[in-house]
Amino acid sequence: MLKGLAITPPAIGRISIGRVVERNGKRLPEKDDQFTLTTQVQTRDGWVLHPLDDELRKAAGGKLRSIPVQMLFNDPALNLRADYSLFDRNKGRPMCVGNGETCRRRGKDGVEQLPCPGADACGFAQGECKPYARLHALVDGGASDELGSFVLRTTSYNTIRTLAARLEYLHAVSDGNLACLPLELKLRGKSTAMSFGTPIYYVDLVLRAGLSMEQAVADAKQLAKRRREAGVDQKALDQAAHRGFANGAFEELEEDGSAVVEEFFSTGAADRAADVGACVESGLKSRLDARVAAATNRA
């Protein structure tokens, strides 16, 4: 095994809730209110759709807001890889990855291990560091490759926190048989004070529709038993994944990092967020001015 190269689960596709569009000569990320399954091939027109996207969309009757999945590993931390990440926005290379306590950072003399104060308090990142997570999931219908996963990438605090909690809870209630549970990814919407009534979307992980907790756990235990009797060693698979992730300092390759930067860390996205903030402030000011004027007229 090549030292310094993280061995990650083989990816056969992507799960996204947005796309990158060209606007005023800039390529900018644009959020959506549904899932899209793509291959790993990107053309000038965007990512090529995976055949499962059309299949699941037809079954859903239109917008794809839930995806039937199973986890590849029993260990929650292997299915969801989350950290604070800083990328070189020109080259797409990961520069620093940390967990809020320690980080691995590229320097002149190689990769150093240093204290990590978190994204908000890091002087090195200067505000360019974000939480960044990858969820590896098996999509039902793609069982021809039972070790090939679809990858959902996200920088959403809501998605990361929700998925982390769900994975831990589901692992606990299933007596550790997380990889055997019938699950589905579900897109949820919420409004916050920061969104000013506009819905924002995040990803949740729940039991497959129509299944009770008792039935889902019983089915998972039966499947785990059948796998053991057939010689499938889930514990060894988890151990192999642990070794693979630990083999390298950074999990994202530079060639993949460019697409990650474009979608999640681009300067264009930051500029657009600033423009949205300005519009919100302008809207609030207009509403306040109108209220003041109305109050003055009544007086």
TrEMBL record:
Which domain of life, per UniProt?
Bacteria
Q: Which UniProt keywords are listed?
A: Hydrolase
Query: What lineage is on file?
Result: Bacteria, Pseudomonadati, Pseudomonadota, Gammaproteobacteria, Lysobacterales
Q: Which Pfam families match?
A: Gp3-like
InterPro entries found in the cross-reference section = Gp3-like
**Protein name, UniProt field:** Hydrolase or metal-binding protein
A GO molecular function assigned to this protein is: hydrolase activity
Annotated organism of origin? Fulvimonas yonginensis
